[in-house]
Every structure is written in structure tokens, then in C-alpha cells.
Amino acid sequence: MLILMLRTLLVYLLILLAMRLMGKRQLGELQPAELVSTILISNLASISIESPELPLSTSLVPVFLIVALELLLSGLCFCWPRVARLLFGSPVTVIRNGKICCDTLRALRFGTGDLLEALRGKEVFNPAQVRWAVVETNGSISICKTGEEEPFVPVIADGQLLKGALLLCKKDDPWLSQVLKQEDCTREQVMLLLVRTSGEYQLIKKENSPSPQKRNKGLWKGHL
Amino acid sequence: MNRLRAAAVILATLLLLTLASQRLVSDSLDSLETGLTQVERLCADGAYQTAKERLYNITQAYQKKQAVLALFIRRDKLSELETSLYSLTAYVHPDYRQDLFCETGRLKAQLNGIRRLFFGLL
Prior knowledge:
The complex is a heterodimer.
Chain A: H1 2-22, H2 32-50, H3 57-79, H4 81-88, E1 92-96, E2 99-100, H5 102-107, H6 112-121, E3 130-135, E4 141-145, E5 153-157, E6 160-161, H7 165-168, H8 173-182, E7 190-195, E8 201-205, E9 214-216, E10 219-221
Antiparallel strand pairs in A: 1-2, 1-3, 3-4, 5-6, 5-7, 7-8, 9-10
Helix pairs in contact in A: 1-2, 1-3, 2-3, 3-4
Chain B: H1 2-44, H2 48-69, H3 75-88, H4 97-119
Helix pairs in contact in B: 1-2, 1-4, 2-3, 3-4
């Protein structure tokens, strides 16, 4: 019994360490790869608790292999956004100016009932009240209601032009070149460019980003 | 990026652990199998006392390694192997020669089972 308790304690602490290593992303809404790793880890952790005859390495080695792969995969996605798009997909517009994009819904295998349910979750009971609704890569839906301020569309993120974003805010390449020239920077120097159809934009350059946060007696303090 | 470094360290540790375990298990099982073959040969030649000593040495060596082997192999399989090794001594006698060969054959089959359990992919 004591051994069982010690094994459980050891597995608990190591899984806690593993989840801490995977970071805060794992604790919020999950991406498909993160969901897979979380399910696998929970199952693997129970193996060595349930079966005392099995060595601890039977579950701990696969758990830490999954953690390492998950970390490497997230690093890969950070360095190459194309990998992230391939693995997690891209956010998809399902309602634009109160009109439901039926083809997109069909491609997502999202029924009208599912869409209405998701909208009700956001306290919207009529799709006509929605200016813009996007199904995020984790399956959740984000909406902007009519009457609210027009949302910004991300056009450049981490120096990369987002596919179809210019079209979405009714802008073109010459407009983008003009903005970049006006701001005196190249596309690679842009951390984030948010644009509205009205032409209003917000540009955040990479050098203007805050310095890394430092831990100070348990509190996180950002230094600009 | 610190987490990426942690991932690399974890992967390197797991790789080292895997290589070490492969070596340890393979060497332990090989030495056991070789020892059993030697015992069979000694008994066939009629050197029962030497065979008994050899068997004692094999059992002692296995017991020393058992704790480390338990990190990688199921404890119940290791205990079965230990019991079989202990019972083998009783058969090292001219009257039980055929029984000894039968028991060593069974032990070798057990060793093969453990080898498959550890090295088998499917």
C-alpha cells in the first residue's frame, strides 16, 4: 500500500511537471495535437498506478516523450507558421454581415443547429445580428455583433502575410506596400498589422515589442 | 525557447535511457542463456559439481541485476524467472538429467518470451 501511494505521488508530481513544461496553452482550450497529448498522458499516467507489477518507466518514458514532442512541435509551429496551419488549420469565417457562409459550414461539417448553438453560447439568438463570426482552430466561435465597433483583421503576423486577409478587409497589395512605405518598414519587420475595411490600421513593429517579462516575488511584471 | 531546450534535454535523456536499457536487458538475457547452455553441457559431460557451481553463479549474478532490470521489465516476469532458476539446482543430478534438460529448455523459452516482450515492436 505504501509503495502504491509512493508510486501515485511520484507519477502525480512528474505529470504535474510535464503539464507545467507544456505551458499555459495546455490548460486553456486545446488544439487537436494538444488534446491528443493530454488524453494520452492521462491514460499513460494511470497505467503505472493501476498495475504495480509494471515498471514506472512503462508510463513515464512515453509521457515525457509526448511532452518533448509537444514542445518541439510548438517550437516548430512558432518558427514556421505553415507547419502550424498544416497541423492546426486556420480560423474560418462562417458569418459575414449577417449572412451565413453555407459552403464553409458544409466544409467544416458544422450543421446550422451547431452554429446556432455556438451563437446562443455567445448570447446571440439571430445570425442577422452578427457582423462577423469566425470558427477558431480550437473549434470555438468568436463573434462581432452588428452595432459593435468593426473588428480589426490581422493582415501580417510575425512578418508573414496572412492568406486571404487582405481580401477580407477589401484591400490589395499596392495598399499594403503604401502602408509599409508610410511606416518606413519592411513586411519582415512587422510583428502585427491589423486592418479595418475603412482603411484604419494598427501596426506594431518587432522592435517596439515589450522586453521579456521578469518574475518578481511570484508576480509577473512587464517592462516596456 | 527555454522550453525547447528542456524538450531537447528530455529527448536526449530518453534516448540515453533507451540505449542503456537495451544494452542492459540484452546483456543480462544473453549471459543467462549462455550460462544455461554451459550448465547443460557440463551435465552432459557428467561434471555435476561444476554445473552446480555455475548455476549458483548465474543465480547470484541475476539477483544482483534484478533490481535494475525491474526498471524496464515487468516484476512478475522477473520473479517467474528467478523461481525457475532456483528450482533448477534440484535437477543437477545424474538421475534427473532429462528433467534438467527439459527445465533449462523451459527457462530458455521464458527468456525468449521476455526478449520478445522488451524488444518486440508489435
